[in-house]
Amino acid sequence: MLSWEDEPWLEQNSADLLDLLDRTLITVPKGLAGELAKIGAVRAEYPAFTPGDTCPDNNLLTPGGLRLIDFEAACFQSVFLTAAYCRMPFSTCWCVFRLPAGLAEKIEHAFRAEVVNAYPELADDAVWQAGTRRAIAVWTVDATLALLPRTLEDGPLHPTRRPVPTRRQLLEHRWARAGPLKASSAGRASAAAALAMSFERTNTPTG
């Protein structure tokens, strides 16, 4: 069985998204396939060992500091895919809420300070920002595949814990922050920007 770093999940996600949009009768904007292919380049950028799923409920606060307690997704992958958790926030998690002002930046700064020890070139803001935006786009596609088929009948992301966002709320939030997927080119809105507008029209939050 392939490990996560070897499995072509980024490429498969891109293909699956196009198929899902077609099956759900959401118009696939022209050029979307090419844009998805570009963000997949993040896979090979600056690999490092990571727990793979750095959500809050996969960590434990102890008197001795923070302890990671979930390693089932541990693998080598781009540091940008981990950095994206700080900004989105929490790329693959159900517990997505607004963070206190400045907290996400503080977390990302601490993570980046460690990463730069291994990859000094990531001290360049342009390199860091571009890579992290691509990673956010990668996770946005991943979330869409998980959530879109279940948004017809909206519901909370967790079966018992409250308060918690709904599937539609999270999906709209992800596309609102989709980074390079929404960037314009030569004065024209990207294909993914058009797709994001579709989600805004069809996935209006319920609360």
Record keyword descriptors for this entry.
207 residues; mainly alpha; Aminoglycoside 3'-phosphotransferase, Chain: A, domain 2; two-stranded antiparallel ribbon; 7 helices; disordered C terminus
Largest sheet: 2 strands, antiparallel
Q: Assign an overall shape.
A: globular
Strand content: 5-15%
Spell out the helices and strands N to C.
HHEEEEHHHHH
**Rg (C-alpha, Å):** 17 Å
Structurally, the number of domains stands at 1
Mean pLDDT comes to 84
Contiguous low-pLDDT stretches (5 residues minimum) are 203-207
Organism: Microtetraspora malaysiensis
Protein name: Aminoglycoside phosphotransferase domain-containing protein
Chart the SSEs and their pairings.
Layout: H1 9-23, H2 32-39, E1 47-50, E2 59-62, E3 65-68, E4 75-78, H3 79-87, H4 103-118, H5 125-147, H6 167-176, H7 191-202
Antiparallel strand pairs: 1-4, 2-3
Helix pairs in contact: 1-2, 1-5, 3-4, 3-5, 5-6
What does this molecule look like?
- InterPro entries: Kinase-like_dom_sf.
- This is Aminoglycoside phosphotransferase domain-containing protein.
- Helices cover 45% and strands 8% of the residues.
- It is built from 7 helices and 4 strands.
- The strands form 2 sheets. The chain has a two-stranded antiparallel ribbon.
- Strand 2 and strand 3 form a beta hairpin.
- Helix 1 crosses helix 5 and helix 3 packs across helix 5.
- The radius of gyration is 17 Å and the shape is globular.
- The relative contact order is 0.14.
- The C terminus is likely disordered.
